Amino acid sequence: MKQIVLFFLFFLFTSQTAYAEFDIQFAIDQAKAGDSIHIPAGRYQGNFIVKKPIKLYGQKGTELYAQNDEPVLKIEHATNVSIENLRITAKNKGIVANEMVNLELRAIELKDIQVGIHIQRSRHIRILENKIIGNYSHFAEKGNGIAVFKSEDVAIEHNTIKQVQDGIYVEEVKRVDVQRNKVTNSRYGTHFMYSNGVKVLFNTYLQNVTGLMVMMTTNLEISSNTISTHNGFNSYGLMMYDTQEAMVRKNSFLHNRVGVALQKSSVIQIQENRFQMNQTALEGTKVDERSTIMENQFTGNILTARSDNQGLRLMHNFYDDYTGLDVAGDGFGDVPYVAVSSFGQWMVRQPVYQFFVASPSVVILTSLDQQINNTERNLLVDSEPKLMSNMKKTELSLNSKQLVIGLVVTICSLWLWRRGTRV
Amino acid sequence: MTRWITMLILCGVILVGCGEKAYHPREINSETDVCKVCNMSIVHNEYAGQIVLKNGDYEIFDDIGCLMDYLKLNGDGEVGAAYIKNKATNQWMDVYKAIYVYNKNYWTPMNYGVIAFATKDEVQHWMNDEGEGQLLAYHELLTLNWGIHE
C-alpha cells in the first residue's frame, strides 16, 4: 500500500516541478537589444515586464502564471519584441502591451483567463496562432479574448478562441486584418468599433450570441467567412450598425436567427453570399439607396428579407421560394420576386414576435402576402431574380476502374444466379 | 349604510385612478437585454440607462449617449421616467437630476466619454483617479456633440 502511495506521489511532484533556478525577469533585465531568451520547461509564477527589443521563447511545457490581479506579462514602450510558445494562466489579464512598435505574439496558450491579450496605442502588431480559452462564467462577467485599442496595422490570424466576452475586440484601429480565426461560445465572435480599413477573411464564427458585430466602422472587406448557429433571442450572424463602405462577399450565413442585419448603414455591397436555414436571412433599417444585395443565394430561410419603409435593393439573387418562370430563357425570372411580408415587418418592430414564426396563422398571412404583394414594386423587390443557383455543374464522367469492377460483379452475380436456377 | 360603503369604495377607486403613476426602474438582464439604439447587449451594467414609457414598456440602453439619441429621435412625450446608473454606486438615478462628467478618454461602452454620478463628491473622486473632465448638467447633454473625438 505504502509503495502505491509513493508511486503516485512521485508523479505528483515531478509534474509540478518548476525550474526555479531560471529567473525569467532577471534574464529579461540582463538581455541586450535583439537577444533571444529561451525559457526552460516548467511553471513560473510572477508578473513579468518587458521593456526592450528581445525575443522570448518557451519550450514545450513552459507555463507562466500569476495569482494576483496584475497581468502575467506586460510589454511596454519598446520595439521589435517577439513572444512565442508559452502557456499562460491568470486570474485577470494574460498579456498587456502598451505603446509598442513591431510586436509578435505567436503560439501562446492562454487558459482560464479573464482577458487574454490586451493591446493599446501600438503599431505593427501580429497576433498569430494563439489559443485562448476563457472560464465558464456568463459572458457579462468576463473579458475579451484579444482586445486591441487605438492602434495601427494589426494582423490577427489563425487564433482559436472560446468562452470569452468578445473573441476579438477592435476599437479605434486603423488597418486591421482578421484572418482564419475560429471563435466559438462567446458573446461576439469579432467586434469592431470606430475602426477603419478592416479585412475579415476566412474566419469561422460558431455558436456565439452574434458572429460579427460591426459598429461605426468604415471601409471593410468581409469575405469567405463561415458564420453559423447564432440563434439566441438577440442573435445575428453579422450585424452592421452605423457602418459605411463595406463589401460582404462569398460568406456562408447558416442557421442564424438573422443572417445579416444592416442598421443606419450606407454603401454596403452584399454579394455572392450563401444564406441558408436562417430564421430571417436579411434585415435592414435605415439603409441607404447605394447599398445593394446582389447575386446571393437564399435557400431554406423562413423569411428572406424584412426592412423598414426604406427597403433594401435586391438584385439578381437566387430564391428557393420563387415560383416564377423564365420564358425568355435569360436565366432570370420573368416576374419580380417580392420579399415583403407583413409579419416580417412586424418582427422588425417587435422582435418578440419571432416566437410565432411558422405558426399556422403566420403561414396563412405570408401566403396572402405573396398573392397581394405581387403589385408591390418598390420595397424588397428583386425585379430580376436568378433562377439557377450558383451550385457547380458536375460533368458526366466515367471511372474506368469502377466500371470494370461493376461489370465483373454483375456478370458473376448473373452467372451464379443462372447456375442456381439450373440446379 | 350600504350606500355609504359603496360611495366610499367608489371614492377610493377614483382617488387611486387620479394618483400619479409611479415608474420604477427594472434590473438589467445581460442575457436578453440589448440597447434599443445600437443593439449591443448590456454587459457593463454600471453605464446602462433605461426609459420607462407611459404605457409601462421599458427601453434599455448601454450608454447615456444611446439614451440621448433615443430621446432626440422620439422626444420625451411618452417618457414616464428615465434612469441612468450611477458609476460610483451602480444604483439607478433620475437622468434629469444626475451630474455628468465628460472626457474623451473616459471609456464607456460606446466610447462617448460621458459618465453619470449623483453627487459632486463622487465626480471629484472619479476625476482624482481617472483625470479631469468637463462637468455637465442634463440640459447640456441635449446639445453635446456625441461621438468619439480625436
UniProtKB/TrEMBL annotation, chain A:
Q: Which keywords annotate this record?
A: Signal
Which InterPro entries does its entry note?
NosD_dom, PbH1, Pectin_lyas_fold, Pectin_lyase_fold/virulence
Name the domain of life this protein comes from. Bacteria
**Does the record bear Signal in its keywords?**
yes
Query: Where in the numbering of this chain does the Periplasmic copper-binding protein NosD beta helix domain appear?
Result: 142-311
Q: What residue range is the signal peptide?
A: 1-20
What protein name does the entry list? Copper-binding protein
UniProtKB/TrEMBL annotation, chain B:
Signal peptide residues on this chain, from the entry's feature table: none
- Report the PANTHER family cross-referenced here: HTH-TYPE TRANSCRIPTIONAL REPRESSOR YCNK
Q: What is this protein called?
A: Nitrous oxide reduction protein
State the organism of origin: Lysinibacillus boronitolerans JCM 21713 = 10a = NBRC 103108
